[in-house]
Amino acid sequence: MTDIAVEDIVSLFKVHGKIATIRPFGSGHINDTYKVITDTGNNYLLQKINHFVFKDVPGLMNNLVNVTRHLKDKLKAVPGADPEKQVLTLIENNDSEYFIEDSAGSYWRVFLFLNNTKSYDQVLTERQAFEGGRAFGRFQAMLADMDTKLVIDTIPNFHNIEFRLANLDKAIAADSAHRLNKVSPEIEFINQRRQEMGWILQLGSMGVLSERIIHNDTKFNNVLLDEHDHAQCVIDLDTVMPGYVAYDFGDAIRTIINNAPEDEPDLNLIRLNIPLFTAYTKGYLKQATKFLTEAEVNSLIDGVLLIPYMQVVRFLTDYLNGDIYYKIHSPWHNLQRTQAQLQLVKKLEEAKETLNNIILKTWQHEIQ
Ligand code: ADP
Ligand code: GN1
Ligand code: MG
Hints:
Layout: H1 3-10, E1 19-24, E2 32-38, E3 44-49, H2 57-76, H3 83-86, E4 100-101, E5 107-112, H4 126-143, H5 161-174, H6 184-192, H7 199-205, E6 212-214, E7 223-225, E8 231-234, E9 241-243, H8 245-256, H9 274-288, H10 294-320, H11 333-367
Antiparallel strand pairs: 1-2, 2-3, 3-5, 4-5, 6-9, 7-8
Helix pairs in contact: 4-8, 4-9, 5-10, 8-10, 9-11, 10-11
The structure holds adenosine-5'-diphosphate, 2-acetamido-2-deoxy-1-O-phosphono-alpha-D-glucopyranose and magnesium ion.
Residues 28-30, 53, 217, 219, 222, 236, 239, 262 line the site of 2-acetamido-2-deoxy-1-O-phosphono-alpha-D-glucopyranose.
């Protein structure tokens, strides 16, 4: 699609000012994102929603309307808070709805661009990690009393490891891209851990853990920091739906504790940064201790192992399926991601006890 066509799309929304430039933005694996700069200083974020991934776009957009409304209402009651800057704002289209479908069947939406913010694919400082923890902890806290009927499952079974493993098994059986012969060690690694990784689901079915509305995609680049590195706004709300809090904790830690990018090709560079882990945990528990049960606190460490493992399963499944889900930058990108996340699981397994002690010590400190 050319720039002209993207401009036409923007003109279907109630944006203020004349468009100066539109350029691709961000490093997400799912949606297509553009920054729209206008001559008024009001900038916008245009997104083409990946409707192969999000099959019920009206349902998804209804979630976003309900979640952002709930968050803004909460913040209105907090002295000094700024709901316009701290929560995503959807822009209406000319028919006062929040998305459009173009003639090619693609779906588009527009958010207010939050100026002077930054998102990081990798965490650089303890301050950033602490702020990320605070942001996601507060996010969960603010959604704790939201009526679950107001959000649909935008991707059913999203973090259900049994479902993800069953999908992998289907991909192995089909071997549609003829890549199975390249991935025996990875499959063996996954198989050795199938049972233990079902622990959170088991705790759920035993009634020890309950689902809450969580974010479900807490990688660090889904929180915007301001120019002073204070957390400003949690973004990428497409997967906000019921799940266990350990999933959000684990997904955030996956990106924070790793000194290397998610797809690092040199496995020797994948090392754990414990100070960043500690800082995130402090920020998170500062906000979340007030609503977490003891069982949930005890489950956080399981999320730290489970979510990178689930990424191994998901990236490998996509590799075997011929790269139909995630955006890729090379034909081996999904294999590279698989191997990097697998290495991270190995490192996390070695450090499991140390990490859990940090979680429990931080929690003890918070409940005193
Ligand atoms: P994806 O689902 O593809 O990850 P995101 O919604 O996370 O898409 O957006 C991609 C990137 O765009 C983010 O990582 C962030 O850098 C930036 N971004 C998203 N929303 C905003 C916003 N409202 N203001 C400023 N930057 C944003
Ligand atoms: C995708 O959209 P993005 O890039 O924030 C994926 C997440 C994965 C992540 C891995 C809807 O997130 O579940 O954890 O890639 N989102 C979806 O980087 O599948
Ligand atoms: Mg994102």
